[in-house]
Design a protein that fits this description.
alpha/beta, TIM Barrel, seven-stranded parallel β-sheet, about 30% helix, globular, disordered C terminus, hydrolase, Metal_Hydrolase, metal-binding
Length: about 500
C-alpha cells in the first residue's frame, strides 16, 4: 500500500449526507449466509449461518431453508462479527465548532465500513453530566446502528461524584474519561484524577485517560506560537509527554488499585509504559487508533496548510517508527506472550477543510481530530492481516465483540478497492473489502449500497463491575495501607504529611 494514498485516510469529506447513497432499510427477518468461513476471536470453520428476527440461531456445516429465506453466498469469504469502534466523537462541539458527522451520517459511514457498534463520548454541559447525557440522547435519536456512551469528567466536586453514580446506576454507562491535557478547558489535575479513580473503583466503572502532560504541552504551544511553519504539532506535543502522562496515570491507578484504559496510544513511550504495567500484572488496556497505525508525522510537514491541518489530532501522529511499533504491539508470539495493546479504535473526530482553516493564522485554533470510523476495519485488515502480523481470529479480537445478535460482516480477502472522496467515504488502495454488513439481522450494506433508516439504532447499556474488576482486590491496594486521614483533609494533603 502506498503511503501517499494511505495519507488520504484523513480526507474529511462527509458526503454520506447525499441522499442518493441511502436506501430504505431491509425488512427480511430470515437470512442464511451460506458457505463462508465463520470466524470468532478463537476459532474459524466453514459453515452456514442462519439468522432469524435479528438473532443468530444456528451455525452448522449445512443448513437447509425454505424459499422465504434470503440467501447470501459467502463462499471464499470470511463471515465475522460486526466491528465495534470504542472511541468516537460524533456531533461533538469542540474548539469553537462541531464535528461534521451527526449520529446518522457518522453511523452510516461506519456501517459501510463494517462497524456495527460504536461508543461515543458524552461531554458535560455547563459542568453537568446529567445535562450532557440528555443532550447526547437527543442527538442520538436519529441513530441507525447500536451505540453506547462513555462519560467525560472535566472537573471534580461532590456534585460530580453523585452524578457519576447516577450515570452508572440509571443511564447504563460504565466508563469515565479523564483529560490530562487541554489545559484551561477539559484538563483536570492529579488530585482530582485520584479522586475520580477512587470513585470509578467504588462504582465498578472503568477509568479512562487522555494521557498527555497538559502543563508542558501548554508551555510548548506558547513557546512555538511564532515559529510555526506547517510543522507545528511535533514541537509542542512531543512523544515523551505522552509517555510521562501514561506512566503517571498507571501509577495512580495502581495506587487506587483500579483498572485503567489508555485511549489513543500514539507513541512507543506510552506503549512501553503499558507493557511494563501489564507485565507486572496491573490491569491496563491500551487502545491505538487507525491513524496512528497507518501514518507518520511527515504529513504534518506538508507545505500546503490544508493537507497538513487534516492530520492534526491530539496526541499527534508520530514520527516513522512509532507506527510500526504500535502495529507490533498488537500481535503475539514466542517472545511476546501477550499483546501490549488490546483493541483498535479511531478517535473519530472529523472536521472539514473550512473548519480546519480556523487555525490558518494560529495553529492552536486548528480543531483537533481525524476520521476513520469507516476505514478502520479495512485498514486493520490491510496493515495487520495482509502483512501476516496477526491472524484472522486476532483480527476479530482487535476489531469486534462476540455475541448472538446478528451484527455480521462478510469480508472478501481477495478484493482490492479504492475509497475516494467522491464516493464517500477517503482515499486509499487496500486489500480486503467488507462486501456485506448485517446489523440486527438486516442487510444494511451490500453491492456498495447503504440501506439504513433514521431511528433504527439502539442504545446499549453497559453494566458495571466487568471482568476487569473480577478478583482485583486480591492484589491489595497501596491506598488501603495508609492510616485514615483526618476529617476534612483531602487524600493528597494527607499523603503530603504521611
Amino acid at each position: 500500500m502506498a503511503m501517499g494514498l494511505m495519507s488520504q485516510l484523513l480526507l474529511l469529506a462527509s458526503s454520506l449526507s447525499r441522499s442518493n447513497q441511502f436506501c430504505d432499510a431491509g425488512t427480511s427477518s430470515k437470512l442464511l449466509i451460506k458457505g463462508g468461513t465463520v470466524v470468532n476471536a478463537h476459532h474459524q470453520q466453514v459453515a452456514d449461518v442462519y439468522v432469524e428476527d435479528g438473532i443468530i440461531v444456528s451455525i452448522k456445516s449445512t443448513i437447509m431453508v425454505g424459499d422465504e429465506v434470503t440467501v447470501i453466498d459467502a463462499t471464499g469469504k470470511f463471515v465475522m462479527p460486526g466491528g465495534t469502534d470504542p472511541h468516537t466523537h460524533l456531533e461533538f462541539e469542540f474548539m469553537g465548532t462541531e464535528t461534521v458527522d451527526g449520529f446518522f451520517g457518522g453511523q452510516a459511514a461506519a456501517l459501510a465500513g463494517g462497524t456495527t457498534m460504536h461508543i461515543d463520548f458524552v461531554i458535560p454541559r455547563k459542568g453537568s453530566l446529567t445535562a450532557g447525557i440528555e443532550a447526547y440522547e437527543k442527538k442520538a435519536r436519529k441513530s441507525c446502528m447500536d451505540y453506547g456512551f462513555h462519560i467525560a469528567i472535566t472537573k471534580w466536586d461532590e456534585t460530580m461524584s453523585r452524578e457519576m453514580e447516577l450515570m452508572v446506576k440509571e443511564k447504563g454507562t460504565n466508563s469515565f474519561k479523564f483529560f490530562m491535557a487541554y489545559k484551561g478547558a477539559l484538563m483536570i489535575n492529579d488530585e482530582f484524577l485520584l479522586e475520580g479513580f477512587k470513585k470509578c473503583k467504588s462504582l465498578g466503572a472503568l477509568a479512562m485517560v487522555h494521557a498527555e502532560n497538559g502543563d508542558a504541552v501548554d508551555e510548548g504551544q506558547k513557546k512555538n506560537y511564532r515559529t510555526w511553519n506547517n510543522c507545528f504539532i511535533c514541537f509542542y506535543e512531543p512523544h515523551q509527554l505522552e509517555g510521562e502522562a501514561t506512566a503517571r496515570a498507571i501509577h495512580l491507578a495502581d495506587f487506587v488499585n483500579t483498572p485503567l484504559y489508555v485511549v489513543h496510544v500514539m507513541s512507543i513511550d506510552a506503549m512501553e509504559e503499558i507493557a511494563k504495567a501489564r507485565k507486572s500484572g496491573q490491569r491496563v488496556i491500551g487502545e491505538p487508533v487507525a491513524s496512528g497505525l497507518a501514518l507518520d508525522e511527515s504529513w504534518l510537514w506538508h507545505p500546503d496548510f490544508e493537507t497538513a491541518a487534516k492530520q492534526v489530532m491530539s496526541p499527534p501522529i508520530r514520527k516513522r517508527g512509532h507506527d510500526k511499533a504500535l502495529q507490533a504491539s498488537l500481535s503475539t508470539g514466542v517472545l511476546v506472550p501477550f499483546t501490549t495493546l488490546q483493541l483498535v479504535g479511531t478517535d473519530r473526530c472529523a472536521f472539514n477543510s473550512t473548519q480546519k482553516a480556523l487555525g490558518i493564522d494560529d495553529f492552536q485554533k486548528i480543531p483537533n481530530g481525524v476520521n476513520g470510523i469507516e476505514e478502520r476495519m479495512h485498514l486493520v485488515w490491510d496493515i495487520m492481516v495482509e502483512s501476516v502480523q496477526i491472524s484472522v481470529t486476532d483480527y476479530v479480537r482487535l476489531t469486534s465483540t462476540n455475541g448472538s445478535d446478528a451484527d455480521i460482516i462478510i469480508l472478501n480477502p481477495n478484493s482490492s478497492f479504492e475509497i475516494t472522496a467522491k464516493s464517500h467515504h477517503s482515499k486509499l488502495d487496500t486489500n480486503g473489502k467488507v462486501e456485506v454488513t448485517i446489523a440486527g439481522g438486516r442487510v444494511v450494506w451490500e453491492n456498495n449500497e447503504l440501506k439504513v433508516a433514521h431511528g433504527t439504532g439502539r442504545y446499549i447499556k453497559m453494566p458495571p463491575f466487568s471482568y476487569l474488576s473480577d478478583g482485583i482486590d486480591k492484589k491489595g491496594c497501596l491506598l488501603s495501607k495508609l492510616p485514615p486521614s483526618p476529617s476534612g483533609e483531602s487524600q493528597i494533603q494527607h499523603l503530603k504529611s504521611f
